[in-house]
Fold:
Amino acid sequence: MQTYRLFIDGEWIDTADYYEVRNPATGEAIATCAVAGESELNAAVEAAQRAFPDWAARSYEERGEILRAVAQGVKARYEEFALVESQQTGRCLRETMAHDVPSTIAVLEYFAGVAPATLGETIPVPGAYLNYTRREPYGVVGAITPWNFPLWLAVIKIAPALAAGNTMVLKPAPTTPLTALMLADVMRQAGAPAGVFNVLTDPTPDVVGDLLTRHPQVQKISFTGSTGVGVRVMQNAATHIAPVSLELGGKSPFIVFADAEFDRALAHALLANYFAQGQMCTAATRIFVEKPLYERFRDAFVQRAQRLQIGDPQDPTTEFATLHKREQLEKTEFYVRTAVEEGAQVLTGGKRITEPPFDKGFYFQPTVLANVQPTMRVACDEIFGPVAMLMPFEGEDEALRLANQTDYGLAAGIWTKDIGKALRLAHQIQAGKVWVNCYNMIPPQAPYGGYKLSGFGRELGLHCLLELYTQVKNVQVDLSPDYFEWFG
Ligand code: NAD
Structure:
């Protein structure tokens, strides 16, 4: 079992206390991590502040070289990253191998190359002046990440923030800090200067996060997590007017028209609900199917949900594994029970899986509900578990009304061969990401983020370099041989 210390100022730092990180599928301890407190937080922010001037003064190419070396370092430890990600989250190894690690490498490589595109502008102003803008980094970025995709969600903050010349203090989720700590090791070997990247671990969810977001020297806060905590983060940031970007929860619609390509829509609907056991911010739990197709789609969906191979997350053939924690299990159970009390019908699943060896984890059956009304709690709140609900609709207008009947606005899926219809809806749906005839595609080149209670600010793409991790400075230069005398 590995012991991880804090990573501050390029060094591994010991603390008085350590806590255990456990594999959710077995309950076994897989690592111990140092417990950070206020003094370690202050040391990390100071280190990041000291490192900032030199890091910001380096060329984009130099910073890009280091990020490229980090990508190489992750590639060299590909299997180890995938395994540890699976062990700490409880998610299937086949997912972390096929998604988390390659996506992480792709994000690092993209930002290593694209950072020089943070161009300024020259602005025509009246008179003999040169007026231009520069994009400058903020300074120390405080980053906070959740437990579901710990490596990739950290890297979509780290890569653009560092590429733009910022330095960072990262606070991963208490239960899944290991791959961020492995990444710190890779960073050091890749030549990232001391203090540019720091990682603090802490078993309580809010102590270090709270201190980090209130720290006056943290110039920009980048948060991914639940909407409730997002509110708190925004309040903390307001105490020192730090800009914030928030990637929060979701309740995404998945709209299947009768003319959709059936097999593809079905395969993606399953992925959109049961990948990561539904513990995805983009989980499309509200599946709306046009009436003529509804029964066929519903029956096929239920059949396929029943066929998912449930097992040990580290078995490469397992398709569906444990939930991450007990609270998540209880929450999922609560929503299914409440839905049934409100009149919903369980078509399959709906229960914990308690027979050995699953009793050691937090397993819950892949669940499908019917007879769900859009106003029921199960259809309004984010569950973050494997609960899909199928609802029939009639025509484009009703699809749009149902899709937008949510406080969230992270993502949406539209399935139809009629491209005009798809784009009409895509433009009217209140969500930051719309997929037409595909789902959950998050390329590093394209912006990603939410509307409404799903947050604001766009991660990935040039958008995030320009809008999240740089600020605009305007410079005006007098070119005139004359000057203007105001006094006397
Ligand atoms: P969470 O909000 O409980 O925790 C997220 C992070 O915030 C953790 O690191 C936690 O320790 C920290 N935190 C908790 N209280 C804090 C406080 N007062 N101040 C500062 N930090 C604090 O979320 P979670 O349970 O880890 O993750 C699930 C949530 O994340 C879901 O709502 C999901 O939709 C959301 N999420 C969103 C996206 C996205 O891209 N929009 C991606 C993944 C997950």
